[in-house]
Each structure stands twice: as structure tokens, then as C-alpha cells.
Specification:
Number of helices: 2
Radius of gyration: 38 Å
Distance between the termini: 112 Å
Number of strands: 55
Strand content: 25-35%
Shape: elongated
Largest sheet: 8 strands, mixed
Number of domains: 3
Helix content: under 10%
Structural class: mainly beta
Length: about 650
């Protein structure tokens, strides 16, 4: 076996003894004077058995002038000089100089000196990658701290090669060392190091590192969990012989140790929060195969400095890169048609764009206007107001959206509490979820005729909204669309309406009359609950279902007629109609559910339809003035508490 032979020249009379001998240093006084900088000879190329290597020099930070520890392993001699502990011997070398610690390995040695513990590893050393394990001869750097006498296995490290575009194991050659001892400087040290035979261990099983599910079509795989703890991760292109097409939600979330990630060109979807909180990640290459980057995918990756979105990505989800506090460079292709709310919030890149123009526009999408105030006119050429674009702009007073804009995104103007007026274009087709929610100063809105969709909570709690015009083409009034609009006194519902969704007009307490147009088929849960000012309700025969609590608390209505088409009245649908004295129900009604007329304390008499089979529990609970009731001929049962609290009831026929 060949050996590398080196010699040492020592300044100020240092003398290096034969292998295993004693390193003699001149006596010197204690001093705190600054020492000259040390040179550490290092080389990171791999070596093989029998090779002779010569290390190249590089300069390290200035060495400490006191308490410098140099440890050489095997047969050892320790000399204490000027508070410096020096241990010499054959084989292994560990040097601490200028705050830098380098450890070389072959034999197994643990040394504790000067409060510092150093462990050297045995024989061939193993470096792990995300998918493969390679064992190399030579020496490696260990950064673990252990107690004296404790043996710590080497876990290794990997690096991503920009040249080969691959993940490789890092192996450190034995290196010559230069350090500083107070007034005495070691200028050159040459070490004899023998390379041991290299061996290779099997690659770890990727199917054990990743958990996954096969897609419904059986043509691909979705990764659902990562069980590793590597610095560099290579996602396999295939599992079970199927291409990996999706990285699922939160798979790598919070894995702060990850510094590099390789995504194969089979992946099409990066799931929500997939890499969120990977603070060690400094660079990522998204392959051209990706079409969707989901919400929060790279949120809070504070090490990322640049990102290039590939050409095929059509959508970037909300907060996808939010709080990437080092992200300065962003490249977005023209094909990206949707950019979610706050996608780049709290990044240096977005701040730089805002300094140029408070209305940040990308691919004709207004993605951010958080700094806008006063009267704002959205520039011509914009086709969409993005999700959360103006959200929280409390100084915004009016906005004009130009012709050509087709969509107003989710929460686009949410919580703009100073917004008094808004002008919408005739080209508008959809208003997103919570688009104008909590705009408490908004007084009037005309929704253009081309709008076919008004999202849930679109005008939630617009407390001063008095005038609302809806287009006839609108078929659905979504969940909570106008809930809490307490100043709204009247509304004409569109002729094309088919569904009034849950809580659509909940707590619109100033509404006095409502006419539901012919063609409407269902009235959802709590749709008009809390509309305490209603004195009249007209329901067409096209309505077949009235949902749970649909008209709860409409306390001013005195008489009511349900049309023949209604088959089901939901739980507590007319609960607490405290002024109701008479009601007519359709003959074909099949179900009158629990508590339908509970709390109608002014109701005096009622005739139930013949189609009704059962009087549900608490149907007339608390109807204190109900004196007579006519049961259907085919009634088969009266459930618990159906007439509980009906203290005036004298006749049941």
C-alpha cells in the first residue's frame, strides 16, 4: 500500500519528530497579541486506494491566539504550552484554527482537550445522498460533538453539482495544516496518510423514504409523505414503475435541514404547502412539466433568493411564495393566467415592484395594490383584478374598474372599510368569494348584466349598502353573498334565479318585502334568517324545498301562504314568527320537519295538509295561543313534544 510522504518546515525553531514522536515548541510568555492568519490546506476531491495526493493551500480566518487545539491520532503525545494543548501522533489529524475545525479520519479516536471534543471515524467512510449511498476511502469532516469515549457513526453529506446536474457524495482528502501558536507559526506541515480500500453499500430504498398513493387512473403516483432527513433530496421519477406526477400537500413542510431538492420532469402538480418552511432551501429548479404551483407551496422558504416559473405553469396559488424574505428575483412566464392572492407577499421582489408602481400588474393581472389609497382607476389593459389585490386598503375611497376586466378575484377588495363607491365594467363575468366583503362604507352596487356568478360572501357585512341591482342572467345567489347588509331595504331578485343558497340574505334586518321569482327551485339554510323587518314574502310554485331555518326570526309577518309546489319545509324554517296568526299549507306537502313553527306564539289555528304522514317533534313547540288544529286523515304518528307548550290548545281534529 502506498503512502503519501510529507515534510514540515517550522518557523521559530519548531521541530517535528519522527512518526509517533514529540512536537517541541519554544517556551513563550502568555500574551493576547493578535496572531498571524493561519492557512488550512484542504482538498475536496475524492481519492482511491493507493493514491498519493498533494493538498492545495487556502487561507482560513485569523487563528485564535490562545487555546488552539491540534490533535493527531493513534500513538499520542500531549504538550501544553501557553494554554495550548497539542497532541501528536501518526494517522489522523484534527486542527482547530481561527474558529475552523477540520477532522481527518481512518482509525477511531476520540479526544477531549481544552473543552473541545473531537471524534474521528473508522476506515472507509460513508456519504449518503437522498437516494444512494456511496462509501469512499479517505477522510471526512465530522461536525458532531460527543462525550469522551463515545463513538459516533458518520452520516455524511451530499452536494448538488452544477456541472453534472446530479447529486454527489462529498469526500474530503487528507490535508496539510497550518496554524498559529502565539508567537510561533507553523508554516508548512506535511502528513503521511494511507488511503484504505473503497467499498460500496446498496442504495437506500426510495419506496421506504417516500410514502405515496397511486392515482385514480392508475397512470401515475402522488407522493404523500417524506420520511428522510437528508440535506439534499432527490425525488424519484418513478415509484412502482409509475411516474411521480404530484408532490402532495405538506410533504416536506418544515424540513429545515433540506438545502437542495431535485424535482423530476414527471411532476405536474406541486401541492399546497409542499415545501413550506424549508428555511435551508436556497435554490430550487422547477421542471417544465409542472402546470400548477399550489397555495403556500414554497411559503416561508427564507433562503430562496430567486425563482423561475416554467412556461407550462398556468396557475400560481395564493401565498405560494409568501414570506420568502430573501426572494429578490422572480421570472413569471406569459402563460401564467392566474396568480393567487398574496402569492409574493413579504418578499423583496414585491417591494421593489411596489416602489415602481403601487398597482403591481403581471400578465395583465392586477396582483397587488396594497399601497393604494384615495380614488383609484385601474389601468386599461388589465383583464383581471387578482385575489386579495386591494385587500385591507382602508384608505381606498373609490375605484373604477375599466372595460376589458372579466373577473374580480377572491377577497379582491375585502375589508376596504373606507370604500364608498365602485364602478364595474360591462365586460365583467364573475365576482369572486368575499370580493367586497366587510366593505362597511359601500353604499351602492350595480352588478353588470354579463355577470353570471357572484361568489359566496361577495358583499358580506356591507352594512351601509342601501341599493343593489342584480342582473337577470344570474342563476345562483351564493352562500352568505349579502348577509349582514343591514341597510338594504329592498332588492329585486333576477328572473333567471334558480337557487338562493344558505345564508344569502341572513340578518338583512332592513328588508321589508321580498318577491322570489318564478323558476326558483330552492331556498337554502337560513337564507332569510334574522330579516326581522320583513312584512311580506312571496314564494312561487316552482319552489319545492325550503331549508332549515330559512326564515327564522321574521317576527313581523302576520299571515303567510305556502304555494302548492312546496314538498319539504326544513327544521325551524319559520321558527319565532311571533306575529304569525294564520298560515296556509299546500295539500301535497310531504314533510314538515322538527320545530318548523316553534315559537309562533300568535298562531291561533292551523289545518295540516292531507299528504303529511307525521307531525315531527316540536313542530308547534311554544305556540302558546294555538287553540285548534286539524290533523291530516292519513297521519300515522305524532312525535315527542310536537305540541309542547301549546297551553291554549283545546281542539285536535
Amino acid at each position: 500500500m502506498k503512502k503519501q510522504r510529507i515534510t514540515a518546515m517550522l518557523a521559530a525553531g519548531l521541530m517535528l519528530a519522527n512518526a509517533g514522536g514529540t512536537l517541541q515548541l519554544p517556551v513563550c510568555a502568555e500574551t493576547n497579541a493578535a496572531a498571524p492568519p493561519a492557512a488550512i490546506l484542504t482538498d475536496t476531491a475524492a481519492i482511491t486506494a493507493g493514491d498519493t495526493t498533494t493538498a492545495a493551500a487556502s487561507t482560513a480566518p485569523a487563528a485564535q491566539t490562545d487555546n488552539t487545539t491540534t490533535t493527531k491520532a493513534s500513538s499520542q503525545t500531549t504538550v501544553t504550552l501557553c494554554s495550548t494543548v497539542v497532541t501528536t501522533g501518526t494517522g489522523l489529524t484534527t486542527t482547530k484554527a481561527g474558529g475552523t475545525t477540520t477532522t481527518k479520519a481512518t482509525g477511531l479516536t476520540t479526544t477531549k482537550a481544552g473543552g473541545t471534543t473531537t471524534t474521528k471515524a473508522t476506515g472507509p467512510t460513508t456519504a449518503k445522498t437522498g437516494v444512494t449511498t456511496t462509501t469512499k476511502a479517505g477522510s471526512v469532516t465530522l461536525t458532531n460533538t460527543v462525550e469522551t469515549g463515545e463513538t459516533m457513526p458518520f452520516t455524511g453529506s451530499t452536494a448538488y453539482s452544477e456541472t453534472t446536474k446530479a447529486f454527489v457524495a462529498e469526500t474530503t482528502k487528507p490535508a496539510a495544516v497550518s496554524t498559529t501558536y502565539l508567537t510561533t507559526t507553523v508554516t508548512t506541515v506535511t502528513t503521511i496518510q494511507t488511503a484504505t480500500e473503497a467499498t460500496t453499500t446498496p442504495a437506500p430504498n426510495a419506496e421506504n423514504t417516500f410514502e405515496y398513493t397511486v392515482n385514480e387512473d392508475g397512470k401515475g403516483v402522488k407522493i404523500t409523505k417524506y420520511n428522510g432527513s437528508y440535506n439534499a433530496v432527490k425525488i424519484p421519477a418513478k415509484l412502482e414503475g409509475l411516474p411521480v406526477t404530484e408532490i402532495g400537500s405538506m410533504v416536506f413542510m418544515g424540513k429545515e435541514e433540506i438545502e437542495a431538492i431535485a424535482i423530476p420532469d414527471t411532476v405536474m402538480v406541486i401541492g399546497s404547502n409542499a415545501f413550506s418552511g424549508c428555511t435551508g432551501l436556497t435554490k430550487v429548479t422547477i421542471p417544465d412539466s409542472v402546470t400548477l404551483i399550489s397555495s403556500g407551496a414554497f411559503g416561508s422558504c427564507t433562503g430562496l433568493t430567486e425563482i423561475t416559473i416554467p412556461e407550462n405553469v398556468t396557475e400560481i396559488g395564493s401565498q405560494a411564495f409568501a414570506s420568502c424574505s430573501a426572494l429578490k428575483t422572480v421570472s413569471i412566464p406569459a402563460n401564467t393566467a392566474k396568480i393567487g392572492g398574496s402569492a409574493f407577499r413579504d418578499t423583496p421582489w414585491l417591494k421593489a415592484q411596489q416602489e415602481k408602481n403601487p398597482l403591481v400588474i403581471v400578465n395583465q393581472i392586477l396582483i397587488d395594490a396594497a399601497a393604494a389609497s384615495g380614488e383609484v382607476k385601474v389601468p386599461d389593459g388589465v383583464t383581471a383584478v387578482g385575489d386579495m389585490a386591494f385587500s385591507g386598503c382602508r384608505a381606498l375611497t373609490s375605484v373604477t374598474v375599466p372595460e376589458g376586466v372579466k373577473t374580480i378575484g377572491e377577497s379582491a377588495f375585502y375589508n376596504c372599510t373606507g370604500l364608498v363607491s365602485v364602478k364595474l365594467p360591462s365586460t365583467l363575468e364573475s365576482i369572486g368569494y368575499q370580493a367586497f366583503g366587510m366593505c362597511s362604507a359601500l353604499t351602492a352596487v350595480t352588478v353588470p348584466s354579463g355577470v353570471k356568478e357572484v361568489g359566496g360572501s361577495a358583499f358580506l357585512s356591507c352594512e351601509k349598502l342601501e341599493t343593489l341591482v342584480l342582473p337577470n342572467e344570474l342563476t345562483v345567489i351564493a352562500n352568505s353573498a349579502f348577509a349582514g347588509c343591514r341597510a338594504l331595504t329592498a332588492i329585486t331578485l333576477p328572473e333567471g334565479l334558480r337557487t338562493i343558497d344558505a345564508r344569502a340574505f341572513t340578518a338583512c334586518s332592513a328588508l321589508t318585502d321580498i318577491v322570489i321569482p318564478e323558476g326558483t327551485e330552492s331556498i337554502g339554510f337560513a337564507a332569510f334568517a334574522g330579516c326581522s323587518g320583513l312584512t311580506g314574502i312571496t314564494i312561487p310554485e316552482s319552489v319545492t324545498t325550503i331549508g332549515r331555518g330559512a326564515f327564522w326570526g321574521c317576527a313581523k309577518i302576520e299571515s303567510f301562504h305556502l304555494p302548492e309546489g312546496v314538498r319539504v319545509v326544513g327544521i325551524s324554517a319559520f321558527h319565532d314568527w311571533t306575529s304569525l296568526k294564520s298560515i296556509r299549507l299546500p295539500d301535497d306537502m310531504k314533510q314538515l320537519l322538527w320545530g318548523a313553527f316553534a315559537g309562533c306564539k300568535s298562531l291561533r289555528s292551523i289545518e295540516l295538509p292531507n299528504g303529511l304522514k307525521t307531525i315531527a317533534a316540536e313542530t308547534f313547540y311554544g305556540c302558546a295561543n294555538l287553540k285548534s288544529i286539524s290533523l291530516p286523515k292519513n297521519a300515522s304518528g305524532i312525535e315527542s313534544g310536537a305540541f309542547f307548550g301549546c297551553k291554549s290548545l283545546k281542539s285536535i281534529e
